Amino acid sequence: MKTNIQLFLLVSFSIFCLSTAKADEAGKQLFQQHCASCHGDPVAGQRRIAPPIFAVKNHYLAVHDEELTFVNAIEEWVAKPEEKNSLMKGAIRHFKLMPKIVVAEDDVTKIAEYIFSDAVGIPEAYKKHYSQNHGGKTSEQAPASYSRLLLRQFRLSPQQMDELKLSKEQLVTINQLLVDKEVVMQPMREEVLSFNQQLQSLDSRKADFKNEIAALADVNAKRVEQMVIASGGARAKIEAVLDDNQYQMLLKFRAAFIKRLKRR
Questions:
Q1: Ranges of each domain in the chain
Q2: pLDDT digit string (tens) for 94-107?
Q3: What are the CA-CA distances from residue 207 to residues 9, 30, 211 (Å)?
Q4: 3 state DSSP class of 243
Q5: Most buried pick, 48, 91, 145, 184, via CB within 10 A?
Q6: At what angle do helices 67-79 and 53-63 cross, to 10 degrees?
């Protein structure tokens, strides 16, 4: 009896995996058909005309981290793309508003499920590019020297990093997680910084000036909330790489750092 149950569970799991793989493949094909020309990799020599799909995914995940709400949000956007409902105001300023496209509702659902899946992630080439241009020293050079991202993340001096005694494997993993974090966070930071410019562009003598400020503040608050959520999630992943002793030492260093700030 026990063997039969185990066999049933194994078969059911295999069927589930197979159906999931087929669904991902269907979504991928539909994405290539309807979306890749704008959100995929641009043809050599041509300019990008829309944000890459991994950037779209990261913005939506920051607000909708469950598949159902994520898919619903994508469906609503495709059905009626409007700037006031956009999670990517910076992309609209750079690429203009996405035109309405005609795609069957079931196909949009499959595309959204594919985007949510693990099949869509940050391209390794983009991570490498970002690391080379923004990450400072590479993880392969540690512990002789530490990346700017790593020192900024932990708010530690190189001497304190030495005291943590991170292994080469830990450093490689942490530096990669830091690059992943920065790829997600940098566009959000740029948008938050741009809000002051938008404020300065408003006409203070218009009758609806206060309403415009309120709308701008609301969008800014949502972006800051997304940043906090994304940053907190990334921090948890990074600090999970530390063992218990290293983590306790980090907390000790952090408490001392905060104490020094309060004295200023």
A1: 2-116, 124-263
A2: 888 898 888 999 99
A3: 66, 46, 9
A4: coil
A5: 184
A6: 120
